[in-house]
Amino acid sequence: MVSLLTGIELDHDLRCGLAGYLVAVTAAVGVAKESWAMDLDHPASAYIALDQRLPRQPERDTALQWDERHGWAFAMETQSGEDLLVLAYFEGELVPSPDTVGRSVTAIQTTGGASATPVPPEPRADRDHVRARLPRYRRDIWAATAPRSHLVISPGCS
User: What mean pLDDT do residues 8-17 have?
Assistant: First the structure.
């Protein structure tokens, strides 16, 4: 059987699913739903700014990074504006539940960061694998029943 979905439709599925997932993760980590950004290039990636700072580096902001190959990482901003300094990679699923991400962030913040130099996990999946795990977070599918005041709709996902 030949799929009738085009690349544009598949990108729409990824964009809407990932946007909904990021809104759910921001709620789980206790930051504003506007605190995220995503990039659908290969690999797809996302960034969530966190409000908490680590006690050992109180002048540096912290953030979460995600990409479709390695999953989530807890990172700290550098003072020079370069790439983020990854302090820990999350193990397990590429698209863990938002609550799991929230618990992982709390654990890292409680311990003050990673105790060893983090090593990125081996790439674990492809885009189809990630896209298959995101439909439950698509706000354009459940938006008709959710209160509008609680939604931040991504362009084309409403």
Answer: 76
